[in-house]
Amino acid sequence: MTDAGKQKRACRNTRQKKLILDCLASDAGRHFTADEIVDILKSRRTPVAKSTVYRSLAVLEESGEVRKYFLSEFNSACYQFVADAKTCAEHYHLMCVLCGKVVHFESAELGRAFQEIKSAQKPGGFFVDGRRTVFYGQCGECSAK
Amino acid sequence: MTDAGKQKRACRNTRQKKLILDCLASDAGRHFTADEIVDILKSRRTPVAKSTVYRSLAVLEESGEVRKYFLSEFNSACYQFVADAKTCAEHYHLMCVLCGKVVHFESAELGRAFQEIKSAQKPGGFFVDGRRTVFYGQCGECSAK
DNA sequence: GTGGTTGCAAATCCTTTGCAGACCT
DNA sequence: AGGTCTGCAAAGGATTTGCAACCAC
Known about the structure:
Number of helices of chain A: 6
Largest sheet of chain A: 3 strands, antiparallel
Shape of chain A: globular
Largest interface: A-B, 46 and 46 residues
Structural class of chain A: alpha+beta
Strand order of the largest sheet of chain A: 1-3-2
CATH superfamily of the largest domain in chain A: Winged helix-like DNA-binding domain superfamily/Winged helix DNA-binding domain
Oligomer: homodimer
Order of helices and strands of chain A: HEHHEEHEEHEEH
Helix content of chain A: 25-40%
Number of domains of chain A: 2
Radius of gyration of chain A: 17 Å
CATH architecture of the largest domain in chain A: Orthogonal Bundle
Number of strands of chain A: 7
CATH topology of the largest domain in chain A: Arc Repressor Mutant, subunit A
Protein backbone atom coordinates (compact mmCIF):
# COMPACT_ATOMS: atom_id res chain seq x y z
CA MET A 1 0.00 0.00 0.00
CA THR A 2 2.30 2.76 -1.19
CA ASP A 3 1.30 6.36 -1.63
CA ALA A 4 2.66 6.53 -5.12
CA GLY A 5 0.02 6.66 -7.76
CA LYS A 6 -2.66 8.29 -5.72
CA GLN A 7 -2.40 11.50 -7.68
CA LYS A 8 -3.14 10.01 -11.04
CA ARG A 9 -6.71 9.32 -10.07
CA ALA A 10 -9.79 11.07 -11.28
CA CYS A 11 -9.56 14.71 -12.01
CA ARG A 12 -12.14 15.17 -14.71
CA ASN A 13 -15.24 17.04 -13.91
CA THR A 14 -17.95 14.81 -15.22
CA ARG A 15 -21.70 15.12 -15.18
CA GLN A 16 -21.97 12.01 -13.04
CA LYS A 17 -19.55 13.18 -10.43
CA LYS A 18 -21.42 16.46 -10.11
CA LEU A 19 -24.73 14.68 -9.78
CA ILE A 20 -23.42 12.47 -7.02
CA LEU A 21 -21.88 15.34 -5.15
CA ASP A 22 -25.05 17.37 -5.54
CA CYS A 23 -27.02 14.51 -4.13
CA LEU A 24 -24.81 14.27 -1.07
CA ALA A 25 -24.68 18.02 -0.64
CA SER A 26 -28.46 18.34 -0.85
CA ASP A 27 -28.63 16.98 2.67
CA ALA A 28 -25.15 17.54 3.99
CA GLY A 29 -25.81 16.18 7.43
CA ARG A 30 -27.11 12.89 6.23
CA HIS A 31 -25.36 9.66 5.47
CA PHE A 32 -26.15 7.96 2.21
CA THR A 33 -25.48 4.45 1.07
CA ALA A 34 -24.36 3.88 -2.50
CA ASP A 35 -27.73 2.33 -3.24
CA GLU A 36 -29.61 5.31 -1.91
CA ILE A 37 -27.64 7.58 -4.17
CA VAL A 38 -28.44 5.41 -7.15
CA ASP A 39 -32.13 5.49 -6.29
CA ILE A 40 -32.24 9.21 -5.67
CA LEU A 41 -30.53 9.99 -8.95
CA LYS A 42 -32.83 7.61 -10.74
CA SER A 43 -35.87 9.30 -9.26
CA ARG A 44 -34.50 12.64 -10.37
CA ARG A 45 -34.37 11.36 -13.90
CA THR A 46 -30.60 11.57 -13.96
CA PRO A 47 -29.64 7.96 -13.44
CA VAL A 48 -26.05 6.96 -12.86
CA ALA A 49 -24.78 3.41 -12.95
CA LYS A 50 -24.11 1.82 -9.62
CA SER A 51 -20.53 1.01 -10.50
CA THR A 52 -19.98 4.62 -11.41
CA VAL A 53 -21.39 5.67 -8.08
CA TYR A 54 -18.98 3.39 -6.26
CA ARG A 55 -16.05 4.55 -8.34
CA SER A 56 -16.89 8.21 -7.94
CA LEU A 57 -17.41 7.90 -4.21
CA ALA A 58 -13.99 6.31 -3.89
CA VAL A 59 -12.47 9.19 -5.80
CA LEU A 60 -14.38 11.81 -3.87
CA GLU A 61 -13.37 10.20 -0.65
CA GLU A 62 -9.75 10.29 -1.63
CA SER A 63 -9.98 13.93 -2.51
CA GLY A 64 -11.63 14.65 0.81
CA GLU A 65 -14.96 15.88 -0.49
CA VAL A 66 -16.81 12.94 0.90
CA ARG A 67 -16.29 10.84 3.95
CA LYS A 68 -16.93 7.14 4.15
CA TYR A 69 -18.24 5.45 7.26
CA PHE A 70 -18.67 1.89 8.17
CA LEU A 71 -21.43 2.42 10.60
CA SER A 72 -22.21 -0.77 12.28
CA GLU A 73 -23.45 -4.17 12.43
CA PHE A 74 -25.32 -3.30 9.31
CA ASN A 75 -24.29 -4.15 5.88
CA SER A 76 -23.24 -1.26 3.77
CA ALA A 77 -20.95 1.70 3.85
CA CYS A 78 -22.32 5.20 4.21
CA TYR A 79 -21.04 8.33 2.59
CA GLN A 80 -21.38 11.84 3.84
CA PHE A 81 -20.71 15.16 2.22
CA VAL A 82 -17.86 17.09 3.76
CA ALA A 83 -19.00 20.67 3.95
CA ASP A 84 -15.70 22.04 5.06
CA ALA A 85 -12.94 20.80 7.26
CA LYS A 86 -13.63 23.16 10.11
CA THR A 87 -17.27 22.31 10.45
CA CYS A 88 -16.42 18.65 10.46
CA ALA A 89 -13.76 18.97 13.06
CA GLU A 90 -16.25 20.31 15.51
CA HIS A 91 -18.92 17.73 15.68
CA TYR A 92 -18.96 14.12 16.56
CA HIS A 93 -21.02 11.17 15.51
CA LEU A 94 -23.18 9.07 17.71
CA MET A 95 -24.51 5.99 16.10
CA CYS A 96 -27.31 3.93 17.53
CA VAL A 97 -26.40 0.28 17.35
CA LEU A 98 -30.04 -0.68 17.44
CA CYS A 99 -31.72 1.44 14.79
CA GLY A 100 -28.68 2.59 12.86
CA LYS A 101 -29.53 6.25 13.18
CA VAL A 102 -26.61 8.63 13.30
CA VAL A 103 -26.81 11.90 15.11
CA HIS A 104 -24.27 14.65 15.26
CA PHE A 105 -23.45 16.57 18.31
CA GLU A 106 -21.05 19.05 19.65
CA SER A 107 -20.36 20.39 23.06
CA ALA A 108 -17.51 22.21 24.71
CA GLU A 109 -17.41 19.47 27.29
CA LEU A 110 -17.02 16.84 24.67
CA GLY A 111 -14.46 18.91 22.86
CA ARG A 112 -12.36 18.97 25.97
CA ALA A 113 -12.78 15.29 26.59
CA PHE A 114 -11.78 14.56 23.07
CA GLN A 115 -8.72 16.72 23.33
CA GLU A 116 -7.72 14.64 26.30
CA ILE A 117 -8.22 11.48 24.37
CA LYS A 118 -6.15 12.81 21.53
CA SER A 119 -3.31 13.75 23.78
CA ALA A 120 -3.42 10.69 25.98
CA GLN A 121 -0.48 8.36 25.89
CA LYS A 122 -1.30 5.71 23.37
CA PRO A 123 0.54 2.59 22.28
CA GLY A 124 2.95 2.95 19.40
CA GLY A 125 2.35 6.62 18.82
CA PHE A 126 -1.19 6.11 17.68
CA PHE A 127 -2.82 9.26 16.40
CA VAL A 128 -6.55 9.57 16.89
CA ASP A 129 -8.52 11.26 14.16
CA GLY A 130 -11.62 12.74 15.70
CA ARG A 131 -13.33 13.20 12.41
CA ARG A 132 -13.33 9.52 11.75
CA THR A 133 -14.27 8.37 15.17
CA VAL A 134 -17.83 7.34 15.81
CA PHE A 135 -19.30 6.80 19.22
CA TYR A 136 -21.62 3.86 19.44
CA GLY A 137 -24.48 3.49 21.79
CA GLN A 138 -28.23 3.76 21.91
CA CYS A 139 -30.42 6.62 20.94
CA GLY A 140 -33.13 7.84 23.29
CA GLU A 141 -35.93 6.19 21.38
CA CYS A 142 -34.32 2.79 21.34
CA SER A 143 -33.31 3.04 24.97
CA ALA A 144 -36.90 3.73 25.89
CA LYS A 145 -38.04 0.43 24.46
CA MET B 1 -36.58 -6.40 18.50
CA THR B 2 -38.08 -7.79 21.65
CA ASP B 3 -36.27 -9.82 24.23
CA ALA B 4 -38.70 -12.66 24.00
CA GLY B 5 -37.38 -15.68 22.24
CA LYS B 6 -33.75 -15.00 22.83
CA GLN B 7 -33.54 -17.89 25.19
CA LYS B 8 -34.61 -20.55 22.76
CA ARG B 9 -31.44 -20.23 20.75
CA ALA B 10 -28.49 -22.54 20.86
CA CYS B 11 -27.75 -24.05 24.15
CA ARG B 12 -26.15 -27.30 23.18
CA ASN B 13 -22.57 -27.75 23.97
CA THR B 14 -21.12 -28.96 20.75
CA ARG B 15 -17.60 -29.78 19.73
CA GLN B 16 -17.64 -27.02 17.12
CA LYS B 17 -18.78 -24.33 19.50
CA LYS B 18 -16.02 -25.27 21.91
CA LEU B 19 -13.42 -25.20 19.17
CA ILE B 20 -14.49 -21.77 18.06
CA LEU B 21 -14.52 -20.39 21.55
CA ASP B 22 -11.13 -21.96 22.26
CA CYS B 23 -9.76 -20.33 19.18
CA LEU B 24 -10.98 -16.91 20.25
CA ALA B 25 -9.87 -17.43 23.82
CA SER B 26 -6.40 -18.53 22.75
CA ASP B 27 -5.61 -14.90 22.03
CA ALA B 28 -8.24 -13.06 23.97
CA GLY B 29 -7.03 -9.62 23.07
CA ARG B 30 -7.16 -10.20 19.37
CA HIS B 31 -9.94 -9.70 16.87
CA PHE B 32 -10.65 -12.52 14.49
CA THR B 33 -12.62 -12.55 11.30
CA ALA B 34 -14.82 -15.52 10.57
CA ASP B 35 -12.44 -16.54 7.83
CA GLU B 36 -9.47 -16.46 10.15
CA ILE B 37 -11.24 -18.73 12.55
CA VAL B 38 -12.00 -21.17 9.77
CA ASP B 39 -8.36 -21.17 8.69
CA ILE B 40 -7.00 -21.54 12.19
CA LEU B 41 -9.26 -24.46 12.96
CA LYS B 42 -8.38 -26.05 9.66
CA SER B 43 -4.67 -25.72 10.39
CA ARG B 44 -5.26 -27.33 13.76
CA ARG B 45 -6.76 -30.31 12.04
CA THR B 46 -10.15 -29.61 13.56
CA PRO B 47 -11.95 -28.00 10.65
CA VAL B 48 -15.36 -26.43 11.10
CA ALA B 49 -17.58 -25.35 8.25
CA LYS B 50 -17.72 -21.66 7.57
CA SER B 51 -21.46 -21.53 7.95
CA THR B 52 -21.16 -23.17 11.32
CA VAL B 53 -18.62 -20.58 12.35
CA TYR B 54 -20.97 -17.78 11.38
CA ARG B 55 -23.89 -19.40 13.12
CA SER B 56 -21.93 -20.12 16.26
CA LEU B 57 -20.49 -16.64 16.42
CA ALA B 58 -23.96 -15.19 16.19
CA VAL B 59 -25.07 -17.39 19.06
CA LEU B 60 -22.00 -16.65 21.14
CA GLU B 61 -22.47 -12.97 20.54
CA GLU B 62 -26.02 -13.15 21.73
CA SER B 63 -25.00 -14.95 24.86
CA GLY B 64 -22.32 -12.35 25.51
CA GLU B 65 -19.32 -14.63 25.26
CA VAL B 66 -18.08 -12.95 22.14
CA ARG B 67 -18.28 -9.40 20.90
CA LYS B 68 -18.72 -8.44 17.30
CA TYR B 69 -17.09 -5.38 15.82
CA PHE B 70 -17.46 -3.71 12.51
CA LEU B 71 -14.05 -2.20 12.43
CA SER B 72 -13.74 0.03 9.49
CA GLU B 73 -13.49 0.79 5.97
CA PHE B 74 -12.58 -2.81 5.53
CA ASN B 75 -14.81 -5.58 4.60
CA SER B 76 -15.55 -8.04 7.28
CA ALA B 77 -16.75 -8.24 10.82
CA CYS B 78 -14.36 -9.09 13.64
CA TYR B 79 -15.08 -11.13 16.70
CA GLN B 80 -13.39 -10.94 20.03
CA PHE B 81 -13.50 -13.15 23.05
CA VAL B 82 -15.06 -11.56 26.09
CA ALA B 83 -12.91 -12.59 29.01
CA ASP B 84 -15.09 -10.89 31.54
CA ALA B 85 -17.16 -7.78 31.55
CA LYS B 86 -14.87 -5.81 33.79
CA THR B 87 -11.77 -6.31 31.70
CA CYS B 88 -13.63 -5.25 28.63
CA ALA B 89 -15.04 -2.16 30.18
CA GLU B 90 -11.61 -0.81 30.83
CA HIS B 91 -9.94 -0.72 27.52
CA TYR B 92 -10.61 1.06 24.32
CA HIS B 93 -9.95 0.33 20.71
CA LEU B 94 -7.81 2.29 18.36
CA MET B 95 -8.03 1.29 14.79
CA CYS B 96 -5.57 2.38 12.15
CA VAL B 97 -7.46 3.43 9.05
CA LEU B 98 -4.41 2.74 6.91
CA CYS B 99 -3.28 -0.73 7.88
CA GLY B 100 -6.36 -1.93 9.71
CA LYS B 101 -4.48 -2.86 12.83
CA VAL B 102 -6.42 -2.60 16.05
CA VAL B 103 -4.68 -1.84 19.30
CA HIS B 104 -6.14 -1.70 22.75
CA PHE B 105 -5.29 0.84 25.28
CA GLU B 106 -6.29 2.02 28.65
CA SER B 107 -5.36 4.98 30.73
CA ALA B 108 -6.81 6.78 33.66
CA GLU B 109 -6.78 9.91 31.60
CA LEU B 110 -8.82 8.32 28.89
CA GLY B 111 -11.14 6.83 31.45
CA ARG B 112 -11.89 10.29 32.73
CA ALA B 113 -12.33 11.71 29.27
CA PHE B 114 -14.68 8.94 28.45
CA GLN B 115 -16.71 9.56 31.57
CA GLU B 116 -17.10 13.12 30.44
CA ILE B 117 -18.22 12.01 27.03
CA LYS B 118 -20.72 9.68 28.57
CA SER B 119 -22.17 12.36 30.75
CA ALA B 120 -22.09 15.13 28.18
CA GLN B 121 -25.41 16.48 27.06
CA LYS B 122 -26.31 14.58 23.95
CA PRO B 123 -29.18 14.92 21.54
CA GLY B 124 -32.24 12.88 22.26
CA GLY B 125 -30.90 11.13 25.33
CA PHE B 126 -28.27 9.24 23.43
CA PHE B 127 -26.38 6.77 25.55
CA VAL B 128 -22.77 6.15 24.60
CA ASP B 129 -21.48 2.65 25.01
CA GLY B 130 -17.74 2.82 25.51
CA ARG B 131 -17.25 -0.83 24.82
CA ARG B 132 -18.52 -0.46 21.33
CA THR B 133 -16.82 2.74 20.46
CA VAL B 134 -13.74 2.58 18.33
CA PHE B 135 -11.33 5.42 17.84
CA TYR B 136 -10.01 5.76 14.35
CA GLY B 137 -6.71 7.22 13.38
CA GLN B 138 -3.23 6.19 12.37
CA CYS B 139 -0.83 3.92 14.08
CA GLY B 140 2.74 5.01 14.64
CA GLU B 141 4.12 2.89 11.85
CA CYS B 142 1.74 4.21 9.26
CA SER B 143 2.19 7.78 10.42
CA ALA B 144 5.91 7.43 9.95
CA LYS B 145 5.51 6.70 6.26
C1' DG C 1 -7.19 13.16 -30.49
C1' DT C 2 -6.21 10.91 -26.13
C1' DG C 3 -6.79 9.05 -21.95
C1' DG C 4 -9.68 9.19 -18.04
C1' DT C 5 -14.76 7.71 -17.35
C1' DT C 6 -19.00 5.48 -17.94
C1' DG C 7 -22.33 1.62 -18.27
C1' DC C 8 -23.23 -2.94 -18.46
C1' DA C 9 -22.55 -7.49 -17.11
C1' DA C 10 -19.88 -10.74 -14.99
C1' DA C 11 -16.99 -11.68 -11.15
C1' DT C 12 -15.77 -11.41 -6.11
C1' DC C 13 -16.18 -11.29 -1.43
C1' DC C 14 -18.67 -11.85 2.80
C1' DT C 15 -22.60 -13.71 4.92
C1' DT C 16 -26.95 -16.18 5.09
C1' DT C 17 -30.05 -19.98 4.09
C1' DG C 18 -32.14 -24.69 2.74
C1' DC C 19 -31.87 -29.22 3.58
C1' DA C 20 -30.52 -33.94 4.73
C1' DG C 21 -28.02 -36.31 7.89
C1' DA C 22 -25.39 -36.33 12.44
C1' DC C 23 -25.18 -35.41 17.22
C1' DC C 24 -26.42 -33.85 22.03
C1' DT C 25 -29.25 -34.66 25.97
C1' DA D 1 -36.28 -40.52 20.29
C1' DG D 2 -36.52 -35.77 19.17
C1' DG D 3 -35.08 -31.59 18.34
C1' DT D 4 -30.84 -28.96 17.64
C1' DC D 5 -26.65 -28.45 15.12
C1' DT D 6 -23.50 -29.37 11.29
C1' DG D 7 -21.76 -29.47 6.59
C1' DC D 8 -22.37 -28.69 1.98
C1' DA D 9 -23.88 -26.12 -1.71
C1' DA D 10 -26.56 -22.66 -3.43
C1' DA D 11 -28.52 -18.07 -2.70
C1' DG D 12 -28.08 -13.24 -1.49
C1' DG D 13 -26.32 -8.62 -1.04
C1' DA D 14 -22.62 -5.30 -1.47
C1' DT D 15 -18.76 -3.94 -3.98
C1' DT D 16 -15.28 -4.49 -7.66
C1' DT D 17 -13.58 -5.34 -12.24
C1' DG D 18 -13.18 -6.07 -17.51
C1' DC D 19 -14.08 -3.96 -21.54
C1' DA D 20 -15.88 -1.29 -25.38
C1' DA D 21 -17.97 3.02 -26.20
C1' DC D 22 -17.95 7.81 -24.68
C1' DC D 23 -16.73 12.38 -23.34
C1' DA D 24 -13.89 16.10 -21.01
C1' DC D 25 -9.95 18.63 -21.80
